[in-house]
């Protein structure tokens, strides 16, 4: 891609990484402690998420742009607003049925169900796929592509997704 542009978005949301288990799996050999490590991310907790989407094109439009930043904002606006102050939860999470019930009962728990464990990696792919689909629907995929999506969960942790 000869040009790349990016736009960042902020939103606040809760989640829980219900699959976290620090006692086994990829890299667990590096975590050597006398006590069993605590899986703190299985707790319901929240983040000030920072999302960056990078769009690329080999050709500029007649306006000398990959795409107006304003339109990128518009393409993601509804999704970001829906996710803001929500609790992102995997429908396969054992807590999902009860959280859904609580949400229905009190109306002050805005759940955002997804069908994956909401890690930074999986959420980055989720945004990538969403924006790619929006471009496809608009007939723009031949001209503009989503190059990369980066999602910061904390000031020190982020995931990047580049598509297939
Ligand atoms: N590969 C991933 N690992 C972890 C994820 C993730 O999405 N992908 N998520 C979490 C937790 O949700 C957590 O919020 C972030 O974890 P971590 O960086 O360990 O948070 P800390 O506050 O402890 O960071 P420090 O800056 O190192 O104190 C866990 N792992």
TrEMBL record:
SUPFAM superfamilies xref list: Tetrahydrobiopterin biosynthesis enzymes-like (SSF55620)
Record organism: Thermocrinis albus (strain DSM 14484 / JCM 11386 / HI 11/12)
Documented EC number(s): 4.1.2.50
A Pfam family recorded for this sequence: PTPS
Record family assignment: Belongs to the PTPS family. QueD subfamily.
Cofactor: Zn(2+)
Record has Nucleotide-binding as a keyword: no
GO molecular function: 6-carboxytetrahydropterin synthase activity; metal ion binding
Pathway the protein contributes to: Purine metabolism; 7-cyano-7-deazaguanine biosynthesis
Signal peptide location: none
Keywords: Lyase, Metal-binding, Zinc
Keyword Lyase part of the UniProt annotation: yes
Catalytic activity: 7,8-dihydroneopterin 3'-triphosphate + H2O = 6-carboxy-5,6,7,8-tetrahydropterin + triphosphate + acetaldehyde + 2 H(+)
Protein name (database record): 6-carboxy-5,6,7,8-tetrahydropterin synthase
InterPro entries: 6-PTP_synth/QueD, 6-PTP_synth/QueD_sf
EC class of the enzyme, as a word: lyase
